Amino acid sequence: MSEPILELRGLSKIYPGGLKALDHVDIQIRKGEIFALLGPNGAGKTTLIGAVCGLVRPTSGTIHAFGQDITSHWRDARRRIGLVPQELSTDMFEPVIRAVSYSRGLFGLAPDKGRIEEILRSLSLWEKRNDRIMTLSGGMKRRVLIAKALAHEPDLLFLDEPTAGVDVELRKGMWAIIDQMRARGVTIILTTHYIEEAEEMADRVGIINKGRIITVDDKAAMMAKLGRTEAHIALAAPMSEIPPAIAGFPVELENGGTSLRYRGGDGTGKGKAEVAELTKALTRAGIDYTGIDTRESSLEEIFVSLLDHEEAAA
């Protein structure tokens, strides 16, 4: 495996007063991936981003970016990192093109009108290039922040709640933009409250709560390992009780005995296989059924379940 583009080891941040925003965080980010960091408000997502981007001074721990210690090679590292902040912090009186061009200059890059045009066109901002930012819609303002972050052509891009306050249609447009950035080789770390955003876009998912990383895994592996399968089997004839032939399966009768509900596979990823075994057992026992509806738990359900487990263990 190639060297990670970003590696955090033992990263902690304790604010005056004792608030522990980060608690010995260990994460490795792979080059070219989209990594989604999920967590409730106050979990430490924005503090983590701030530590990497130089906005927050960690209490302890190390940050390596592009193979170098970020504290001793800060200027070089920061030049290769882009940040789209959660807050709309930009000069609202500036025309779009001037604000984006200025961001490029801040990192010491020579003016490049062609590159700025390419960025603005990719974000559907070219027609608005001479408009003051204050006149744009919320979704367009969010796109300006992305354009400013891309102006210096970063290799690693942080998106802190990039679609907060954006409607569903614009959110999906943002997903397409993020996919284009990944296609150009940009590594993306995304924080979001929208679970479907992580489910749609991410290669890997990390869950953080109270400053601690609960789990990090490939999205598909996490959903297989921590997910649950639920199946509803419509019976040809109602039953008054679970017959012995299927009593060993996690099933119960519902809808007045006209259907069976299976819930299983928790933490094993074997739910679908067990549903197949259940249907075979029904057939062997001479129990007819007219239909079956199977669904897997979503990333949101896994997320909520993990947080509930953490709270119960605390």
TrEMBL record:
Keyword terms: ATP-binding, Nucleotide-binding, Transport
InterPro entries for this protein: AAA+_ATPase, ABC_transporter-like_ATP-bd, ABC_transporter-like_CS, ABC_transporter_ATP-binding, P-loop_NTPase
PROSITE patterns xref list: ABC_TRANSPORTER_1, ABC_TRANSPORTER_2
SMART domains: AAA
GO MF term list: ATP binding
Transmembrane stretches, start-end: none
Highest taxon in the source lineage: Bacteria
Domain ABC transporter: 6-235
CDD domains: ABC_DR_subfamily_A (cd03230)
Protein name, as recorded: ABC transporter ATP-binding protein
Lineage per the UniProt record: Bacteria, Pseudomonadati, Pseudomonadota, Alphaproteobacteria, Sphingomonadales
